[in-house]
Structure of Muconolactone Delta-isomerase:
Amino acid sequence: MLFHVRMDVTIPPGLDVTDRVAAEKARALELQRAGVWVHLWRIVGRYSNFSVFDVASNDELHGILSALPLYPFMRIEITPLATHPSELAAQ
Ligand SMILES: O=C(O)C[C@H]1C=CC(=O)O1
């Protein structure tokens, strides 16, 4: 199942999150190498990203996102994706 995910990160002023950001990057790379986090794009001008996750269930996605090191500082919006009948790959 594919999910479009937007993550907006807000770090409280003065909080040192250097280690947390490094851990987040390591986990993001791990999930990308595993084929779970299939797209990761920076939203220009924001500490935000558009991502696509390929997971087996809503519960799996929730588990992955809620375990991210930066999760306590994220606002997350999720959109489930379905195949579009006009997509070239669907012909
Ligand atoms: O930078 C972000 O958008 C937040 C988060 C997502 C991947 C990562 O390394 O950090």
In short: The mean pLDDT is 97. DSSP finds two helices and four strands in the chain.
